[in-house]
Design brief:
Elements (H helix, E strand, L loop, with lengths): L2 E2 L5 E11 L5 E10 L2 E10 L7 H12 L6 E7 L4 H6 L24 H12 L6 E6 L5 E9 L5 H13 L4 E5 L11 H7 L5 E9 L3 H21 L13 E9 L5 E5 L9 E2 L4 E6 L6 E6 L4 E7 L2 E3 L6 E6 L1 H10 L7 H13 L36 H14 L12 H8 L3 H13 L3 E3 L5 E3 L2 H5 L9
Parallel strand pairs: 4-5, 4-6, 6-9, 7-8, 8-10
Antiparallel strand pairs: 1-2, 2-3, 3-5, 7-9, 7-15, 10-17, 11-13, 11-16, 12-15, 13-14, 15-17, 18-19
Helix pairs in contact: 1-6, 4-6, 7-8, 9-11, 10-11
This protein binds zinc ion.
Length: about 475
Amino acid sequence: MSETTIGTGFREVRRIPVTTDLDGSTIEVTVNVVTGARPGPTLAVVSGLHGSEWLAPVANLELLEAVDEDQLAGTLLVVPVANPIAFATGTRNIRDESDSPDLNRSFGGAQTWLADQLAKTIVSDVLENADAVIDFHCGPWGAAMNVVGCANDYSNDTVNEKSMAMAKAFGRPHVRPSRLATVFPGPKSMIGYAGEVLGIPAIVSEVGGVGFDPDVEATWKAQNVDGVLGVMAHLGMVDRSSSEGDVTLVGKSHRVNPTKGGMIEPILGADHLMAEVSEGDLLGRVWDPFTFEYIEDLRSPAECVVGMVPTSQPARPCDWAYLVVEFDLASVWGAITTGNFALLDPDRRSSLKARGNQMGVSLATSPTGSENGGPREADPAVFDLKLDRQSSIPAYQQLKFHIIHAVSTQRLFPGDVMPSVREASEKLGLAPATVQRTYGELKQEGILASKPGHYVYVTDVADRADRQPGPGGQ
Ligand SMILES: [Zn+2]
């Protein structure tokens, strides 16, 4: 204990030995512990799993300055540099010949390399003592991001829900829920392991980067400190009014990287982080450093927000440059149906409203009934669709938005009879419960209706007007 105030909170620095390096020095994990004066939960804040992402250790210094142990309820465990070996070489991973050089892919595995030893120490001395965890990442030198993520695929739904609540409490305008426990970065990442194996809710802050204007970097550090304090308020560790505003969920991401080596010339830079772009918008260009010719345009493949921006710098082929992230349509739809636009600027609001119109908020009336006067069957061609199994948007939501889109583009009409759950599930290769969930949510939102024990049909516009929106959105 380096400093103690009797009867109140205190701080200490714990150095936990992992092993002895070849040069005789001790490899250790350093934990800054702030023990509050009042009982409460333990929050672990871990940064530097990747050694090149060094904005976070500095943000953690500011976090430790911002927390008052005499006011704190619970315990804060801060690991500024989780991978000191990679940090020392300024690289993402440990530069050795091991099969597992990436600490954030080394949790809970059967391997015994150095990264696995670091992971074991972090589990036994940090995570196993924690009730919640925040994992800090950011861009490596010359790249920046600004999104907070969490898993939506832990097998324990309560952990998914708690993680999402923490992500929102972080207070950034964009949250990206994805299948990070099972798909990427997977169960051997720290938060994959924390949520799935230890049952600890977890989020990842990917806010900021290094190699930018110092004022811009200072803003990102402040956003990270503010985010952790927001989570601590949410967990009841500090008294602070919630900074939680409206959140836009974003989903599937696309890397837009140079396919050939060259110099990156950003068109959209740090001030465009999380700006909206349309399909085909120019993000940046690549030029040949030997002939000075432009050799590649970097364009957004879809309507997205800009999730990662580079500075002007040389890039190897397929190296980091841009990352764009698609809107999670569920969130957009939720924002439209609830009219929850408070934090959106006017341009953004009109673009969402326009999208809402496309998605069926304002609908033209259309023919009802078949030629023989009976109920008209929905066009089977509408259900010729291929769902994206890799998407972070679950299948039931993909189907939901497909149906909304079909209604808004007049491929489905009011009165059309939908295929039965069994028919649709067979045709789409989905579990009946998945189709049931889609139909259920669309009924709650007034897009579909059914007569008891009877067929499901598309509602009339007038039927929808006075309905309350369902919880669909998020
Ligand atoms: Zn990272």
